[in-house]
Amino acid sequence: MYAHFVFSWPEGASNVHVGHGTLEGPKMTLWTDVRIAGRWSGTVLAEFGRAWVTEHLAKFSG
């Protein structure tokens, strides 16, 4: 299975919502309480998303 994670970070929030799906299609919420640090921006969210996915998928390798 190919993983599609969608990250949503409302401006001013300290938590990211992580879902499964696509940006423009249907999504299934997975977690709503994933902490994020840094100033709200697309760059910060992209870096966070890459690190989060790498760490999350590493749990299943081995």
From TrEMBL:
<protein>
    <submittedName>
        <fullName>Uncharacterized protein</fullName>
    </submittedName>
</protein>
